[in-house]
Design goal:
Radius of gyration: 29 Å
Strand order of the largest sheet: 1-2-3-4-5-6
Distance between the termini: 43 Å
Number of helices: 10
Largest sheet: 6 strands, antiparallel
Number of strands: 6
Strand content: 15-25%
Mean pLDDT: 80
Low-confidence stretches: 240-248
Length: 390
């Protein structure tokens, strides 16, 4: 009998969890989808590459949408059971809140494990794969985008002209470049030959010029400067909105082991050390938030209310907003060195975990939640204001 009840409660949570997770992840992805579609239209990036980029970016959103979806699903699922008096019937049959919370605990632990797997493995792998894919697309566009006797402006701040392309685009001849990236001092570069080179370490595309000269004039047209060179490198920036400096992995692309190794490395800048420590702690605190939200969701969800769905969504998002505001504030203080990184990242879990334990204890003994008088008065006035007229 208990297994049937567990499966029933589990199903009541699973359905709203899946729907909320899909909607939240899709909403967060919308900004990136618009940006990627713009790349597909303006830069000629293939649809398959865009789909892969979206796939690689999904884990970085899941670490935030899974805990929130879990909390909302618990509030909606248990709220529906409580609103239909099914919780009361189950308690009358001899089931305690601890027994009713067992399927919720299983669901929360599963969300905790899945979020941990996403945080520790999928997010670093996805961010690294996305950066490599952007680099490969940029390399391909740089190779195919330059044509003979055509001015090419695919690269930010640079206009390229090649008189001839030799040996299947192996090198260019008669190259003219207008470089406007330095504000106030645009320059024109002439070169006899140029080669497109890929730097997989720094993930940049380089146009290496041979036997040429640079010509620059200041904005007042009073100073002219000429520089002859044997070879000269020009870094091409194809997609500045998505590419980033990749001389080394960023903290979001590192696994926990790489973060620990980097933290233990001597000579790390204190600010960079704090950033690494924050990212390492977040890999643990975000999965633990699923357990905190599970504890908090049970006592709040079993309270009967007529508008179950809207109440569950509203309360869930308000709690999640408070959690992430505290987390962001703690991270900001930790980055400034005001508090240790562990304190800044673990404080929300301590607060909401302790609150969840206290509320669960009171709900299990069917005691009312202690509400300060001023808060009770605000709630009373709010209910009277929004109470529908008879």
């Amino acid at each position: 009998m208990s297994r049937i009840i567990d499966r029933y409660i589990f199903r009541e949570i699973a359905v709203p969890f899946g729907m909320t997770l899909f909607i939240l992840t899709f909403v967060l992805l919308m900004g990136k989808i618009v940006q990627l579609v713009s790349m597909m239209v303006t830069q000629g990036v293939g649809m398959l590459d865009v789909a892969l980029l979206i796939l690689y970016l999904i884990p970085s959103f899941l670490i935030y949408t899974i805990p929130v979806s879990l909390l909302v699903a618990i509030l909606i699922g248990l709220g529906r059971l409580s609103g239909d008096n099914e919780i009361t019937v189950l308690k009358s049959a001899g089931l305690s809140l601890y027994q009713l919370a067992r399927p919720v605990a299983i669901f929360a632990v599963a969300a905790f494990l899945f979020t941990g797997a996403v945080t520790f493995h999928l997010v670093p792998s996805g961010n690294t794969a996305a950066k490599r894919l952007v680099y490969q697309v940029a390399q391909q566009r740089a190779t195919l985008g330059i044509k003979e006797k055509v001015f090419v402006d695919d690269f930010r701040g640079i206009l390229i002209y090649a008189d001839r392309i030799r040996d299947k685009a192996e090198y260019l001849e008669g190259v003219i470049i207008s470089d406007n990236r330095i504000t106030g001092e645009p320059s024109t570069i002439f070169a006899q030959r140029a080669y497109l080179l890929a730097d997989p370490v720094r993930m940049v595309i380089i146009l290496r010029l041979y036997q040429g000269s640079t010509h620059s004039v200041d904005t007042n047209l009073q100073n002219y400067r000429k520089l002859d060179f044997e070879f000269y490198d020009v870094t091409l920036d194809l997609m500045p909105a998505l590419t980033a400096a990749a001389a080394q992995k960023s903290s979001t692309e590192m696994t926990a082991g790489e973060l620990l190794e980097r933290i233990r490395k001597a000579g790390v800048d204190p600010a960079a050390l704090r950033e690494l420590a924050i990212e390492l702690n977040k890999k643990m605190t975000i999965p633990v938030s699923c357990l905190c939200f599970g504890l908090l969701g049970v006592p709040l969800g079993i309270r009967a209310h007529r508008s179950v769905r809207s109440r569950g969504i509203t309360v869930g998002f308000l709690i999640a907003l408070a959690y992430y505001l505290i987390l962001m504030g703690g991270e900001a203080l930790a980055e400034l060195g005001r508090i240790p990184p562990a304190v800044g990242t673990w404080t929300p879990n301590v607060i909401f975990g302790a609150l969840g334990i206290a509320l669960f204890y009171l709900a299990a003994r069917e005691r009312p939640f202690p509400v300060p008088p001023w808060a009770a008065e605000i709630l009373r006035r709010w209910r009277e204001k929004w109470r529908p007229a008879a």
